What we know:
- It is a single chain.
- By secondary structure, the chain is mainly beta.
- The chain has 3 domains: 33-123, RNA Polymerase Alpha Subunit, Chain A, domain 2; 126-219, RNA Polymerase Alpha Subunit, Chain A, domain 2, CATH 2.170.120.40; 222-308, YbbR-like domain (RNA Polymerase Alpha Subunit, Chain A, domain 2, Beta Complex), CATH 2.170.120.40.
- The chain has helices at 2-6, 9-30, 69-72, 163-168, 258-261, and strands spanning 33-45, 55-57, 60-68, 82-85, 92-97, 99-100, 110-115, 118-123, 126-137, 145-147, 151-153, 156-162, 171-176, 185-190, 192-194, 205-207, 210-215, 217-219, 222-229, 232-233, 240-248, 251-256, 266-268, 272-273, 281-286, 293-295, 299-308.
- It has a 5-stranded mixed beta sheet.
Amino acid sequence: MWRILRENIPEKLMALSSAILIWMYVNAEKNPTITQRFTVDVEVRHLQNGYESPVVSPSQVTVVLTGVRSSVEQISPRGIRAMVDLSGVGEGKQRVPVQVNLTRDLLQDVQVEIIPPTVQVTLTRRISKELRIQCLFVNTPPEGYVYISPIVFPETALVTGPRERVNQVQRLIVNAVPDKVGGEIDSDVPIVAVDGANNPVGGVTIRPSHARVVLKLAPVSLTKTVIVTPVWKGAPDASVAIEEITIDPRTVVISGKPDVLAQVHNVETEPIDISNLTSDLSRSVALRPVDGAQLTTTSVRVSVRVRRLPERPSP
């Protein structure tokens, strides 16, 4: 038997090689080597507290799988995930390697290539600062009225966001716009963050986002100086004549709305009774009120000096 096996060895080896090549060809036709490409979003893992969501560039990578068809087709495209691990990565721009979630079991007879293998990650710290809220409004009240200083509640708000954005914020403002020109306001108004040039700053969070604004009108209180006019009652005795009348003060200041003050030219005293007066008189006399106006002085002193008339000769 050994003699038979030793016969025609070259021919037998050639036949075996041919058989192996034929098997490999047939197997390759049934299960060829293929390449598939998948575009995958880059996910972020292990982002440290105190950082804003990072900027990843590029935000997608291409995952290239090369291997026999049966092995490649076992990998579901939906199951391929690309990620960057940010453990220990600090603030600023840096390149971080991209990893895929495919296990060794799935990668039998499969080669994986990630294009690009690294991405640039920009990390920014999140900071906060508290600022007072300022109220802006068009100060054009109706005639005869003024706006009282607006009330804003709360008085402050917290601005949070990336360090560079928050540092741009110089003021927090609320724009109080009434329903009609010259009207009052009592409503919640959005808070806006602005820079030193009053340009809005985006990319920050304001808490609370709104503030209650109360803007009320008050009548204008103008002043006017008018003279005091005495009002007399009765007449002095026939034996005397009024020589001098003195009023102190001679003028008083009144305040009120412009349309009211325009109609007032003097203020009268309460009636001063000089019936049968025979000697000098000096007394405090109240001033009559003026409708729609307030008097800064409520009384004046009135002095009357008389002189005696010569007696008439008897007939």
